[in-house]
Amino acid sequence: MRALLDEHPHLGVEPVLRELHIPSSTYYRWRQAEKDPCERIRQDTELTGQIRQIHQDSGGIYGSPRIHAVLKHEGVHVGRKRVERLMRQAGLAGISPRRSKSFTRRDPDADLAPDLVQRDFTAHAPNRLWVTGLTMIPTLEGPLWLSAIRDAFSRRVVARETSARADADLVLTSLEYALASREVTPGQLVHHADHGTQYTSIKLTTRLVRAGVQASMGSVGDSFGNALPENLWMPIKTECIRGRTFDTRAEANLALFEYIDGFYNHRRIQERLGYLSPIEFEEKHYADQAAAEPVKLKPRQPALTC
């Protein structure tokens, strides 16, 4: 109706309102609301802009729970249902993960390490439990294999390596990188993998023994026995790979670097971490640990006497 009156002002406001049985007070209240929207509408407009920016910064990945958590961290007090409503009105949505399949094969003659984890992927501190696995990224040049090691405490990817071959050298290289970049105390760390031939190889098992790392193995393709390493592939395949075609392995490798090192470890918040990123969660742990340590006072020197 307002559009009709704006386009045909010669019709007159009052005759049109009488014909449509609309009180003139209602019409003029609508017009005033357009010029001076109520506080709630202004807040919704401002909040939608913030939501849109957070969604854009996440690469279109975050849904309402994570966006609500980011707003809370930024000091914006708003209900989650309101965030859901504004996202729906703005046509914004997160990305739902898809489960990926296992790419490792078991060697029936290999000596297997015991399962020290027993489906309990909890750790009370960093570098107590690492989980690792392999997945394949398709490219037009051929498959690119990704080996990644994840710390069970913070869900941080502590090492990743790619190769055109899914062999023992690939997983060994990622292990070497992890050992070089983290402070590992011999005898305190468990390295958990499946029964894939890469993880039962002499190369890898020997290196674990030399580093004082305990080997642990779940079952091949067991979504429960290897839940944490398999859980990493879902966001990678969903948030980094889905809908993209890579011409070369180098192109896919760059995308993985930007996602894992640029976004996942530093910025991707997780509900299980109190809506912190893996690096933020580790930093908070070390800060809390430092704050809890008693202050060591220097002993007083005895007074000098003549």
TrEMBL record:
Q: What role does it play?
A: Involved in the transposition of the insertion sequence.
The identity of this protein, by name, is IS3 family transposase
Q: Could you tell me which Pfam families the record lists for this protein?
A: HTH_21, rve, rve_2
Domain Integrase catalytic residues, every copy: 122-286
Q: Which Gene3D superfamilies match?
A: Ribonuclease H-like superfamily/Ribonuclease H (3.30.420.10)
Highest taxon of the source? Bacteria
PANTHER family reported for this sequence: TRANSPOSASE INSF FOR INSERTION SEQUENCE IS3B-RELATED, TRANSPOSASE INSO FOR INSERTION SEQUENCE ELEMENT IS911B-RELATED
